[in-house]
Specification:
alpha+beta; 190 residues; minor pseudopilin epsh fold; 10 strands; 31% helix; 2 helices
Length: 190
């Protein structure tokens, strides 16, 4: 008489199938994890962006986010206009425009996230071609300025993970921050 249950061969076959499915799912799970870290860093920036914009409107004075590089790391700080002529790099250096908050790491402290452009990444539409050059694009002074009316300087910075690329884009007139992820060569707003 035979006892109910599974044979050793059947059990090994089920375990082998589970391992194959896990191996097939691992890259997709890893890509989603990297994407989540990129979006988390972008959302941390968006929070500070709103803080600086609110400060400009509430205090009726210009404020700015200044991007700074220290070695391989990128940071940003929030500065307020201290002498009535807008936030200027020269006034920051001289101490006329004080640091209000920061510096914060532009990566949001997320593991595996860096301020960079991955090779062969397509440009964000309507631009064409491939991305290259500086991953922080807010003009020559790397200042994102806010007026007392709430408008902002337009620009973009790029965050890269091992298998993913993100863009944090600021629209000037509306001062809206858009978080975008490049998936399969196409940019998707998140």
């Amino acid at each position: 008489m035979r006892a109910p249950g599974f044979t050793l061969v059947e059990t090994l076959l089920v375990v082998a199938l589970m391992l194959v499915f896990a191996a097939l799912a691992a890259p997709a799970l890893r890509a989603r994890s990297v994407e989540a870290h990129l979006l988390g860093a972008g959302q941390a920036f968006r929070s500070e962006f709103r803080r600086a914009q609110s400060m400009a409107v509430r205090s009726n004075t210009y404020t700015a986010i200044r991007f700074e590089r220290r070695g391989d790391e990128a940071y940003y700080g929030i500065y307020a206009d201290g002498n009535g002529n807008g936030v200027l790099s020269s006034d920051i250096r001289s101490g006329h425009d004080p640091l209000v908050a920061g510096p914060f790491p532009l990566t949001g402290g997320a593991p595996g996230v860096r301020v960079a452009i991955n090779p062969r990444t397509p440009a964000v539409p309507p631009e064409r071609g491939l991305l290259e050059g500086d991953p922080i694009r807010f003009g020559p002074s790397d200042l994102l300025s806010f007026s007392p009316l709430g408008t902002a300087t337009p620009g973009t910075f790029y965050l890269a993970g091992e298998v993913a690329q993100a863009a944090v884009r600021v629209n000037g007139g509306s001062a809206r921050v858009r978080l975008m992820i490049c998936r399969g060569g196409r940019w998707i707003e998140r």
